[in-house]
């Protein structure tokens, strides 16, 4: 049963990933995130989002990872099929009311809206292990270097060089 489910996920992933995926360029993603109102949202800045997405997916919208518990994680923010979306295999809360496949295409506004729900939940950005490990408490100013964005670097960590 599990093997069949896994095959189904892989099959579905291959079909979708070949259609409309995209690997975002850092500054292009920064602009998208800023436009969607993430700078300062719940106290997190664009540098937090770029750092997290880099370590989660390498900015690749088609990225899927499979967990030992049978759930899978989808897209640029690696949202989990047990909580945030429905992949038709994992029992899910589906808190974002969406199909996990919609997290794999180049259109990331729905991914961003779902990520906003994640940071509104208890634990906020700590939901992403990679953010806790690689981004939290770090100077994230380099993530926006060279980008034509309005967002300044995280004010708590900003140093004049
Ligand atoms: Ca999407």
Automatic annotation (TrEMBL):
<dbReference type="GO" id="GO:0001669">
    <property type="term" value="C:acrosomal vesicle"/>
</dbReference>
<dbReference type="Pfam" id="PF00062">
    <property type="entry name" value="Lys"/>
</dbReference>
<keyword id="KW-1015">Disulfide bond</keyword>
<keyword id="KW-0732">Signal</keyword>
<dbReference type="InterPro" id="IPR001916">
    <property type="entry name" value="Glyco_hydro_22"/>
</dbReference>
<dbReference type="InterPro" id="IPR023346">
    <property type="entry name" value="Lysozyme-like_dom_sf"/>
</dbReference>
<dbReference type="InterPro" id="IPR000974">
    <property type="entry name" value="Glyco_hydro_22_lys"/>
</dbReference>
<comment type="similarity">
    <text>Belongs to the glycosyl hydrolase 22 family.</text>
</comment>
<dbReference type="GO" id="GO:0036126">
    <property type="term" value="C:sperm flagellum"/>
</dbReference>
<dbReference type="GO" id="GO:0003796">
    <property type="term" value="F:lysozyme activity"/>
</dbReference>
<feature type="signal peptide">
    <location>
        <begin position="1"/>
        <end position="21"/>
    </location>
</feature>
<dbReference type="GO" id="GO:0007342">
    <property type="term" value="P:fusion of sperm to egg plasma membrane involved in single fertilization"/>
</dbReference>
<protein>
    <recommendedName>
        <fullName>Sperm acrosome-associated protein 5</fullName>
    </recommendedName>
</protein>
């Amino acid at each position: 049963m599990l093997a069949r489910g896994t095959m189904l996920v892989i099959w579905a992933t291959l079909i979708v990933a070949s259609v409309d995926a995209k690997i975002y360029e850092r500054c292009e993603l920064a602009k998208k995130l800023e436009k969607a109102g993430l700078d300062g949202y719940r106290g997190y800045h664009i540098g937090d989002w770029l750092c997290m997405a880099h370590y989660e997916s390498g900015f690749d919208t088609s990225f899927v990872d499979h967990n030992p518990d049978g759930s899978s994680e989808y897209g640029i923010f690696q949202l989990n099929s047990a909580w945030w979306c429905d992949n038709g295999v994992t029992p899910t809360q589906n808190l974002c009311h969406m199909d996990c496949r919609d997290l794999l295409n180049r259109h990331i506004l729905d991914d961003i809206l779902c990520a906003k729900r994640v940071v509104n939940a208890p634990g906020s950005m700590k939901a992403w292990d990679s953010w806790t490990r690689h981004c939290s408490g770090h100077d994230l100013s380099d993530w926006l270097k060279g980008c034509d964005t309005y967002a300044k670097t995280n004010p708590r960590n900003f140093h004049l060089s």
